């Protein structure tokens, strides 16, 4: 399958298709050494009848991208250029797969030590710039949608609602500094689980390293309040929109680990894996809800 890349030069207002396998990011780029950038990952599905691709939650993703840029004091990302680059990459990727991921990012630009003139002469953009590329949805990611996962709680290391007093922690921004999230997932696997669930230092359940928690309590779906210190998920919002249309109640609230253990069902939801049932937390089984999981998959794919 021909995964693709397009680079976006803001100054030139240009989208340049690029060879995904070739070198394209100068090592002085601030995303490389500082994680000084932001990103989004969206699911693309291909309509089996018409062959038309659909980027799910496109507006919600771009709104969050814009908010992340603001949180890092980056220039506002130009929507038109990103849309053009996303279309370029999606068109180039269309082939056999019925779904894939599209990932876009923006960097603050190059370190001040870079030889900016030489780089510009070589056609490299030295200011803020962006890129878009496609990636596969792996067999393991697809399998989790039906098979579910077992999770363990891990301490996030700060209290809930820390963002209000310490905005420089950038909670709620989707930055390219994901080393902590990756470390939490590794810790979960080292403990024999599939995934981690972050809990604030004072006991408020937050999110997975790459996903939002949703629980069922009776006829209500609940999710942690993003202001408690987590990313506001686009998939969770798709799930809530679909659920509301079918008469479910939905709400944002503070949840404890005991609330999750007592739930009628729990899921980790995110753009690429979509809705993944949590079948165990810290060694305690949670009820499987295959019908509701299937409804969630439908709600997500409808948006
Ligand atoms: N929380 C974190 C930390 C994430 O990285 C992600 C997505 O990657 C999510 C939640 C879920 O967000 P979305 O549903 O928009 O993919």
TrEMBL record:
* Tagged with keyword Lyase: yes
Q: Which UniProt keywords apply?
A: Lyase
The record's GO molecular-function terms, alphabetically, read: lyase activity
**Signal peptide range:** none
List, alphabetically, the Pfam families matched. Answer: Aminotran_4
Highest taxon of source: Bacteria
> What InterPro entries would the database entry show?
Aminotrans_IV, Aminotransferase-like, BCAT-like_C, BCAT-like_N, Class-IV_PLP-Dep_Aminotrnsfr
Q: Which family does it belong to?
A: Belongs to the class-IV pyridoxal-phosphate-dependent aminotransferase family.
Q: What is this protein called?
A: Aminodeoxychorismate lyase
- Protein species of origin: Brevibacterium salitolerans
């Amino acid at each position: 399958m021909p995964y693709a890349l397009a680079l976006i030069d803001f100054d030139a207002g240009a989208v340049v298709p690029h060879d995904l396998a070739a070198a394209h990011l100068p090592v002085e780029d601030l995303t490389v050494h500082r994680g000084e950038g932001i990103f989004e990952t969206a699911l693309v599905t291909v309509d089996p009848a018409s062959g038309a691709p659909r980027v799910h939650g496109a507006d919600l993703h771009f709104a969050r991208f814009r908010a992340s840029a603001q949180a890092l004091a980056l220039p506002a990302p130009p929507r038109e250029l990103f849309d053009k680059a996303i279309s370029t990459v999606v068109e180039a990727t269309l082939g056999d797969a019925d779904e894939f991921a599209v990932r876009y990012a923006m960097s603050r630009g190059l370190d001040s030590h870079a030889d900016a003139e030489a780089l510009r002469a070589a056609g490299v953009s030295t200011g803020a710039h962006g890129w878009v590329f496609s990636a596969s949805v792996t067999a393991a990611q697809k399998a989790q949608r039906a098979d579910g996962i077992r999770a363990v709680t891990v301490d996030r290391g700060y209290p809930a609602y820390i963002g209000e007093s310490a905005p420089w922690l950038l909670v709620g921004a989707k930055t390219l500094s994901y080393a902590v999230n990756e470390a939490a997932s590794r810790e979960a696997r080292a403990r024999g689980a599939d995934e981690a669930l972050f809990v604030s230092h004072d006991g408020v359940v937050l999110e997975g390293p790459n996903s939002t928690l949703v629980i069922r309590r009776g006829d209500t779906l609940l999710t942690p309040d993003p202001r408690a210190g987590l990313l506001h998920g686009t998939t969770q919002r798709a799930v809530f929109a679909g659920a509301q249309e079918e008469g479910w109640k939905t709400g944002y609230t503070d949840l404890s680990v005991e609330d999750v253990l007592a739930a009628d069902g729990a899921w980790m939801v995110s753009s690429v894996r979509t809705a993944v049932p949590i079948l165990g937390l810290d060694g305690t089984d949670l009820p499987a809800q295959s019908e509701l999981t299937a409804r969630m998959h439908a709600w997500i794919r409808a948006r």
